[in-house]
Amino acid sequence: MNAINDSFLSSADRGVLRLITAGSVDDGKSTLIGRLLYDSKGVFADQLDAIARAKYKRVAGDGIDFSLLTDGLEAEREQGITIDVAYRYFSTPARKFIIADAPGHEQYTRNMVTGASTADVAVILIDATRAADGKLLPQTKRHSTIARLLGICHIVVAVNKMDLVEWDQAVFERIRAAYAELAAKLGIAHFDALPLSALNGDNVVAASPKTPWYQGQPLLALLEALDVQNDGGALPLRFPVQRVARHDGDRKDDFRGYAGRVASGVLRPGDAVTVQPSGVDAVVSRVLAFDRELDEAVAGDSVTVVLDRDVDVSRGDVIAHAAAPAQVSREFEAELCWLDSQPLNPARKYLLKSGTRLTSAKVRAVLSHRDIHELQEVENTEGVLRMNDIGRVSFTTRDALAVDRYADVPATGAFILIDEATHQTAAAGMLR
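The structure corresponding to this sequence follows.
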């Protein structure tokens, strides 16, 4: 019993690893996740029984169609594709995992963006049979580009279906070399590559005797060993205010606090802070949780902050350390991943949501877009972005915003655009 408790505590201390599988359609993403769940004992007997009897099963005989463990929509099972992002949880004695299974079709690239936005690791799958000549598919390039833009710190290239190319080392090396060239163009400093067969389980949980030429770890061991540090505490303080908490307003000692979630940094009583965008300075007198007073709050904590004096603070404001404030501006350039089926139109009205602030935004110009085939920015002569396009845009907002470069502080460097007429989420943006 003690060994079990020690194992659980060890896993808890390592934290949760969030990963996303990405790549082109039919590369085997859903099958790989199903295999990981099955081999790590993360599937219940009734689930196995249900997929064994599924009418859309696509493997011969008594074999298990692992993709059905994540493809839960009727349309997904009928067509044999992933449409929406599916999240699955499993754990091993070494670590806990949350996996997002992203669609491979270009039509659903926008779904991949949402899944990748919270991921620590991207597992990029490549079908060895379709890239045997060393030519990567466009979706492999597009998903790798998005992973890089979103600042995902670890990339794992899983060369799948190696059993269909007779475990040919030369094929694996050509694909690894092709991805190394892609990584260099995108600015990905490091990636891990491994050969595997998701369907048969080779090099997924256990090392395979079929790849004596591969000296690395199987996928699960590699993921368990990855060092993913939550460096939110090392970043500057950013505390977007969600609401103002006020009671006993008729008394001299009435309570006024500012509730929200610490997006980055560390907040302590006695800290000199500034309220942005107004620029009013104050000192933190108390940091309150639901049932107690705290000596400090770190990134991810939901707290109420009490300041040493009454200042004008409202929803959407950002509290930052006075020594390291955010930038305040109404004019920005940003990288947009366009998500709406309606193309970007500078004449349309958009709302911009950054943190807890919602304001109107005017697109001034579409400066460039990314050519997925050439992997470079090119001039955008049309002045529009279409669904799944990635481009650089300049815009102006009605209200001044407290923001940072996405590369510096992701929490205040990211935003979404909302079409004011349809209320559809039009784009995900990263300030550059």
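Residues 169-186 form the longest helix (18 residues).
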